[in-house]
Amino acid sequence: MDAVERLLTSPSSPTIDSLIADLVIQIREAANDCDINAEKNRIAWNALVTDERFVRTDHFPANQQQAIEALDPWLRAELECADKSEPKNVLCLAAGGGSHGPLLAMAGALVTVIDFSSKQLAIDQAIASQLGLSLKTIKASIEDLSGLVAQSFDIVIQPVSMCYIRDVRSIYQEVARITRPYGLYVAQHKQAAAAQASLDWTEGHGYVIATPAEDGRKAPEVLGRSPFREHGTTEYIHSVGTLLGGLCNSGFSIEDVTEPPRADAWAPINTFGHRSRYLPPYIKVKARRKS
After folding, report:
1. Distance CA 69, CA 227 (A)
2. Which positions ≥6 away from 116 have C-beta within 8 Å?
3. Can you tell me the distance from the alpha carbon of 257 to that of 244, in angstroms, rounded to the nearest whole number?
4. Looking at domain 33-289, does it have CATH number 3.40.50.150?
5. How far is 4 from 13, CA to CA, in rounded Å?
6. How many helices (H) and strands (E) does the chain have?
7. CA-based, 20 to 30 A from 197: which of 19, 79, 155, 224?
8. Would you tell me how many other CB atoms lie within 10 Å of the CB of residue 232?
């Protein structure tokens, strides 16, 4: 009825046929493309195994205290106040590549790393072997955590990965299931506006919002390599309402939200640092599982 009223009062509004056609496209994408895009993303992340932005193979701390000091402040505070006789069980979700699991294991946690890329997980395994760390790896998609026991983790960390999943809320529900009461969940996501906007600066207009803010809609395809998107992947747009509201509705209380600084006032146009001045690329969330 709203569409009819708008069309009658404003002839320039989209027609009902065009709205229905757009809806049909999105439904078909949701029904047919999920498996294809998941495999496409897996192949892309296997190829990114040599990208230094996403992997870590050296320069690790010398001891446990240095490892704790190198952690994200939210994680460091959680581990420092923990009973040292009972190590925290930590799940690194979609976090292969060696940047997270080995550091947390060095800090004294019992670590499990899940990733759908076997090549990314191989880095964690190699580092653990090299440093003599106890670390478990599981090859699985974040869309299927059914193999994990309920309430088995004190801490769950999730680097940027929700952008590759259409249905965020189902992931939150599973994370809530496997997290112990009052357990910590730290996740970083791509900002919706950063995914909607053009990648290139236009004189007089800047970075232009070019894609509708519809949750679960595919972000525009990127041709060639880009500092803003992972080459070869399919991404989905997720609103702040879904990323934060969905978290609250899944049994978590949000304790803090930040936008990690990435802006560079001296960066040239069209670089990551320049675009980040106008469109903060990430949002990081600290949440606590309710009892």
Report:
1. 29
2. 38, 41, 42, 45, 94, 139, 140, 141, 142
3. 9
4. yes
5. 10
6. 12, 7
7. 19
8. 15
Q: pLDDT tens digit string along 132-144?
A: 999 999 999 999 9
279: nearest Cα among 207, 219, 189, 221: 207
CB neighbourhood size of 184 (10 A)? 24
Q: Which residues contact 256 (CB under 8 A, 6 or more apart)?
A: 74, 285, 286
Q: Which helix (H) or strand (E) holds 286?
A: strand 282-289
Are 154 and 180 in contact, with CB atoms under 8 Å apart?
yes
Burial of 114 (0-12, 13-18, 19+ CB in 10 A): buried
Has residue 115 got a pLDDT over 70? yes
Contact 111, 104 (CB under 8 A): yes
- CA angle 50/34/196 to nearest 5° reads 70
Q: At residue 19, does pLDDT exceed 90?
A: no
Tens digits of residue pLDDT in 250-280: 999 999 999 999 999 999 999 999 999 999 9
User: Of all residues in the chain, what percent carry a pLDDT higher than 90?
Assistant: 68
The set of residues, in sequence order, having a beta carbon less than 8 Å from that of 229 and lying 6+ positions away, is 199, 219, 222, 235
Say which amino acid occupies 279.
L
> What is the DSSP code (8-state) at residue 250?
T
What are the φ and ψ backbone dihedral angles of 59, each rounded to 5 degrees? 60, 45
Counting every residue written for the chain, the total comes to 291
- What's the CA gap between 4 and 39, in Å, rounded? 40
Domain ranges of the chain: 33-289
